[in-house]
Amino acid sequence: MQKYRESFAVSELGRIHAQLPLKELAEKIRSHFPKTHPQGNTPMFPPEGEVALMFLKPYTGQSDDGLIEMLNGNIHMQMFCGVLIDPAKPIKNGKIASAIRQRIAGVLDIRELQKILYGKWGGSLKDKDLCLTDATCYESHLRFPTDVKLLWECCEWLQSLMSKTCKTLKERQPRNKYRDIDHARLTYAKHRKHSRAATAKLRRRLQSLLAQKKEVKKRIVSIDRPYIRPIVRGKENKRVEFGAKVNNIQIDGISFIEHHSFEAFNEGVRLQECIEYQQELTGVKVAKVGADTIYANNDNRRYCTENGMTTCFVRKGPKPKDEDADISTARRIIGTLRSTAMEGSFGNQKQHYSVGRIAARNSRSETLLLFFGIHMANAATLAARQLAIEEKEKQRA
After folding, report:
1. Where are the alpha helices (DSSP H) in 194-267?
2. In terms of Cα–Cα distance, which of 270, 284, 257 is closest to 115?
3. Are 329 and 125 in contact (CB under 8 A)?
4. How many whole angstroms separate alpha carbon 195 and alpha carbon 3?
5. What is the pLDDT of residues 349-391, one digit of tens each?
6. Pairwise CA distance, residues 230 & 221, whole Å
7. Could you tell me if residue 323 is left (phi over 0), alpha (psi between -120 and 50 degrees) or otherwise beta?
8. Overall pTM > 0.90
9. How far apart are CA 363 and CA 225, in angstroms?
10. Rounded distance, CA 210 to CA 247, Å?
């Protein structure tokens, strides 16, 4: 066991474990739970082990069953979670991870937990007076929605419900155009390309079958996850995304969630909140701000000027002849940092830490997976930095 502990300490998982304040996070989360289990059962994982399991899921990228299967056979993962599983008695219930996730998701307080994480990481972070901010959409794992698909699923569900109800009441089923529309929908689906006229005609027929004539606000794009909304991003290859829109701030390459919502919002009006949140976290006055052009409105420009903050925003009007070269250079450097470090962190999180297409069944679970995925990426970044420092010290020695 001592050799296992030594190998765990120098492994990637061990280095990430050293960067996570699991005990403090568990105490904060446990304060919302009753002191004793209602059934008197002994939990399989310690409190910090449950939090560690939530960090382990985005690290492995596995489903709940796959995560438990890997946990049974990997001694380093068991040490990460603070448990030792008997090989003769492995965990067979893959729903344990889901049960823990649902319990923690109900009391998840992002601001409070991020304060604890910054308390652990703040000492090693530099450039605390530089605030980088940007928004992105962390997509949900769902089929691309169309009006025809959603309307037809509603028609199918209502038809089956009506058939069961009439059968139970021994009543004759009301006449409708369900079969005719089903035939038209099948013919429509067999075509590889659909004209606007054919789509509009079928949509009108489906709406009439549902008796839905009014314009619907906050339209859903998924029957089983009605909280998801279309987020229009305006990108060339993907104009609309479906998932949580998150406004992040970044301190020395480490991201923190400033605001998130499943409803579309304008991130350009949240620059002042981002600056104030960073100052609240760090206790250091922000002097430099890096943000996208959507943040460069008059209110934000005025706020930054009044507080003596250097931004990467393009100047309005002609360039003054006596402009300081240092200020121009600082703006260019801040803009480059925002476009590389901030955008790069989004890609790293989505590709390697399971927040690219989040598979969840409700909004609370999706928010939890998003939170732990982002901060697992942060912990891995800090662990890699610590390893690089140690390697440099060895070379010097």
Report:
1. 196-210
2. 257
3. no
4. 67
5. 999 999 989 999 899 999 999 999 999 999 999 999 999 999 9
6. 7
7. beta
8. no
9. 8
10. 38
